[in-house]
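Dig into my protein:

:::
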Amino acid sequence: MPGVPDIRPRATWEALAQDPSATLIDVRTDAEWNFVGLPDIAETGKQLLLIPWQVYPSMQVNGAFAEHLRKAGLTAESRLYFICRSGVRSLAAGQAAQAAGFPHAFNVADGFEGPPDAEGHRGQVAGWKAEGLPWRQR
C-alpha cells in the first residue's frame, strides 16, 4: 500500500474545485463541528461530508466508518480528502479507507486548525483556517 499522502489545504481546495471525483470528509467529532466550525466548500459546488473517525465522548474508533463512506456514495474511483483538527485522525481515517478499498485517500496536512501557536491557540500557524480558506460556524 503506497500510504496516504499529505496534501496542503489550499491544494485540497483546488482539487475540490477542479476534480469532479474529489470529496472532502471531515472526520472530527460532532462537538468539534458544532463548537469549532467547518470548512465551507460551497464555492466548489461540493458538499462537505461529516463522518466521525472517533465517536464523542468515548472517542472509540467508529466501527462503521467504511460503511458510512459507502453509504455516502463513495467508490474506489473517488478521491477522498480527509480533514480533522491537526492531521492525525484524518491520516488514520485515510489509512482505514485505503484498507477498505478506497485507494485514493489523502490527508489534509495540518487539518482544520493546525498546531498551537506560542500562546497555545490553534488556527493561526497552519491548517485550513490559517491558510485563509472559507469556513463557517455551524
Notes: DSSP finds four helices and nine strands in the chain. Strands lie at 6-7, 22-26, 38-39, 49-50, 54-55, 60-61, 79-83, 105-108, 135-136. The chain has a mean pLDDT of 96. The first helix runs from residue 9 to 18.
